[in-house]
UniProtKB/TrEMBL annotation, chain B:
Species of the source: Rhinopithecimicrobium faecis
Taxonomy, superkingdom: Bacteria
Name the record gives this protein: Succinate dehydrogenase cytochrome b subunit
TM helices/strands, residue ranges: 63-82, 110-130, 191-212, 233-255
Tagged with keyword Glycosyltransferase: no
Amino acid sequence: MSAHMNLTLKVWRQKNDKTKGQFVTIEAKGIADDMSFLEMLDIVNDDLTRKGEDPIYFDHDCREGICGMCSLVINGRPHGPKQGTTTCQLHMRSFHDGQTIVIEPWRAAAFPVLKDLAVDRTAFDRIQQAGGYVNVNTGGVPDANTIAIPKRIADEAFESATCIGCGACVAACKNASAMLFVSAKVSQFALLPQGQTERYERAQAMVDQMDEEGFGNCTNTGACEAECPVGIKLTNIARLNREYLTAKVFREEDIHG
Amino acid sequence: MSKSKPVLNSSLGKKLIMSLTGLFLCTFLVVHLIGNLQLFKDDAGYAFNNYAYLMTHFAPIKVVSYLLYASVIVHAIYAIILTSNNKAARPIGYAASAGGANSKWNSRNMGILGTVLLVFIATHMANFWWKYHNDQVPYIEYRTDLSTGVTTSTEIQAGDFHDFTKVTENGVEILKARDLYKQVDYAFDNVFLVAFYVIAMAALAFHLIHGFRSAFQTVGFDHKKYVPIIQFLGVWIFGVLIPVGFALMPLYFFFCK
């Protein structure tokens, strides 16, 4: 048996990226506590649609915490009050009957609001395109595990590679800095043999693109790590600093090239 | 991947400047505290006034002191540049904020703490540095009987003072000096100044508890074994010992002198 609750939502409504938005208060009635947060919004949207109103626009896709599409700052916390979960994995039992929930989009100059709660996160794509790849030779498929990689290095790289690119780090950061995202993407390659070819160019190109997009500067508050739904660690940011400064100060190709 | 932009134009480069100037200022604090411990000697300022002369007239120290003034200014200017970038990175803030849920207060308010410290530095230099350099402090003469080692001191008038001199006549060492010790004593009769110094030292503590550790993260220093040592130094030496040591000086003169 699940309990039902009535909630007051204060939702950011914005027609498009050209117009100004504002908060709209919407009542959500008869919400079951085993619904996910997004299912709750689905119910609210059904209601709005039936009334002939514009449903609340929000990003979502897999709804199982792996795609990185869902977002939402809920009562001031990206992906809501629980740690290590995305909004789609957040359940209404984390709230109580009669509660007021403030729902806002990711706030960053680099993430302009498209409509309501959905923001344009293509800035992340452009950072990836700037250097978040490896070159491979064409030809026959190489045997698996031909390059020996120590397990702890493989594990560390895998930890970094779990970043789903949702942007919660930017949303959580008081400076709207994208350092946690960029550092995870740089780390997953910097740690592995396959990533060595472009290692130092990558760090420079991705940092340049990050700055270009207008993200803020990291002040090491640790809010990103605390809010990251997949547990990307601050050690990645130290690694990015190291990779970038090494590239700039000590690498042959930059000193003599 | 194209040629990357110069390191100091990047977000990471600007932060590197914050980090290095900040750490340089930290090393200064250690020297400043150790030197000023001579204020606690009950010798009518003999040791301290000698020390003050050395610190203002010894060429290598003068070079370092100009580097120090430059560091304070550069640290403050880059803080303003970085902060304005950070504000621009989030033009629309959150209606609901939950800063305390994912980060420490001092890590989010380094600018406020730093502003307190900048005002403090200006006050501090106006009180002592400016007065010492512009002959606005009293003068003192110490006579030390070299056979018994007993020192007596008398205040002397500006007309009797020409320069810092140390001569020995008939087994008596006569030292004439600017009496910065007395100036310290005067200044810390003022309860508001004492209170301000103590508050500023509290700001210093919180600034350094975040800043010292953060500076190492920014240069990419992240080592399983050594980072806990950095953290320990940041909290207990720079966050507790040094600010408390400094705060005891005005309190000592206010209550004990």
